[in-house]
Amino acid sequence: MTAAVFVLLIALAMAASLWGGRGGAHQKPEDFFVASGRFGSLLFFVLAVGETYSIATILGVPSGVYAHGTGFLAWFLGYILLAFPVGYFLYPAIWRAGRRHGAVTLPDLFGRHFRSRALERIVALNCIAFLLPLGVLQFVGLGTVLAALHLTVPPLALLGIAGALVFAMVAVSGIRGPAQVAVLKDALMLLAVVATGGAAIAWASGQGDGPAHAASPPPPAPTAWPVDIFAMSTIVLQAIGFCLVPQTVAAVFTARSAATLRRAQCAMPLYMLMFPLLVAIATVARHLPSAPADANAVFVTLAGALLPPWAFGLVLAGATLSALVVLAGICLALGPLVARNILPGLDGDAQRRAAKMVMALYLLASIWGAARFHGLMVSINNLFYFGITQTFPGLVALLAGWRVRASAIVIALLAGDALAIWLYEAAIGLGGVNPGLVGLGLNAAILGLLSRLWPARSPP
Questions:
Q1: Where are the domains of the chain?
Q2: What is the tens place of the pLDDT at every residue in 367-408?
Q3: Ordered alpha helix ranges (H), 148-175
Q4: Residue 220: band (very low, low, confident or very high) from pLDDT cuts 50, 70, 90
Q5: Shortest CA distance to 144 belongs to which of 208, 59, 17?
Q6: Do the Cβ atoms of 174 and 32 come closer than 8 Å?
Q7: Do residues 299 and 189 touch, judged by C-beta distance below 8 A?
Q8: Is 445 exposed, middle or buried (0-12, 13-18, 19+ CB in 10 A)?
Q9: Which of 121, 120, 125, 146 is nearest to 10 (CA)?
Q10: In CATH, 2-378 is 2.40.37.10
C-alpha cells in the first residue's frame, strides 16, 4: 500500500509537470528558464516556497534537533526568519536591475552592469562550484526517503530514477513544470509534517497507536548548541546567502512585478508554523524503544512507526517531491550559468541543448557525491553558504551604482572564498565566528578599499 500510494502521487506530479510545460520545446531561452518574467503572485509564491522548504527542512530540522538538541534551532530558524525581511528589500532591487539589463541569471546582471565578460564568468563559476553540495544534500535526503520503501531495487538505481524524473521535468517543461509541481509538493509536504507531527504528539500523550512506550528512561538529551557567537554569525551569513542562491535569484526573475515579490515575502513566514511539529518529531523519536541510528532518518523512521501504510506513502511522496522541485530549480539555474555565462555566442536552441547537457551532468555528479557522503545534512548546508554569500558585496555595489571596477569585485570575491574555505578546512578556532562570515568581511573590506584607491573611471 505504501509503495502504491507513493508511485501514484509521483506519477500525478510528473503529469502536472508535463501539462504545465507543454510546448516547452519551442520556448525561447528567457521563457524556458524564467518564464519571461510572467509569473503572478500565486505562481511565484508556490515556486519560491518550493525552493525555500526542501527535503533539507523536512529531514534536516528533526535530524539536527535529534543530534544536537533544541539549541540547534537558534540559528536554523533564525537565518530563515531573517532572510524574509532581507529578501523583502533585496529581491525588488534585483528584479528591477534584472529588467534593466535583460538578465536571466545573477552573472548576467554582473556582466552586463559592469560590462565585463570576465566578471560574468567568475561569478558563474563561483555559483556552479558551490551548487554541487546543494545537489548532494537533496540526494542524501532522497536516499533516506526511498530506502523506507524497502524495494528490491539497489539504492543507487533509485537515485538514478529520481535524477531521471528531475531531468524529464526540466528538459520538457522548463521553469513552468517545477512551478506546477510545487503546488502539489506544498500540499503533500504540509500534510506529511502535520500527519507525522500529530501522530508523534498523540503517541507521546498515550492516545495514539504505535510502538509501545519505552520502559526505561529515555537517553539523556544531546548537548545543546549554545546561542552564542557561532549561532549569531551563522544567522547573518546564511540569511544573506539564502537570498543569493542561484535558483532563488532565477525565481525572482520569473516574477511579474516588484510588488509580487514583496507580497510573497510577507506570506513566507506562515510556513514556519510547521517547525514546532518537526521539533516534536525529533523529541518523540528519542523516546522510541529503538532510537534511529541515523539522525537523518528520524522523520522517516517515526512516520513509518506511527502512521498507517497509505499515510506513510503520502509522507514519502511529499518528502520526495520537496527534493525533486529543488533539484529542478537548481538545474534550471545551473543550465544557463554554463550555456549563457560560460560558453559564448550560443543561440536560443544551442543554449537549451547545452543547458540540458549540463543539467544531466550535474545530476549525475550529485548522485555520485550522495552515494559517497554519509554526513549530517546540516553540515553540507553550511559549506554551501560559504561561497554563495561571497557575491553579496559586489551585488551591493551593483545595486547602489558605485564606481567599482570589475577586477576589484573579482579579487574581493576570490579572497573571500579562499579565506572561508581555508579556515574551515584547517579547523582554525575563531571564537565561534562562522568562517564564511570572516571571508565575507574580508571580501567587503577589499572591495571597499579598492573602490577608494582604484575607482572606476566612470559609473557602470
A1: 2-378
A2: 988 887 655 455 556 677 888 899 999 999 999 988 899 999
A3: 155-173
A4: very low
A5: 59
A6: yes
A7: no
A8: middle
A9: 146
A10: no
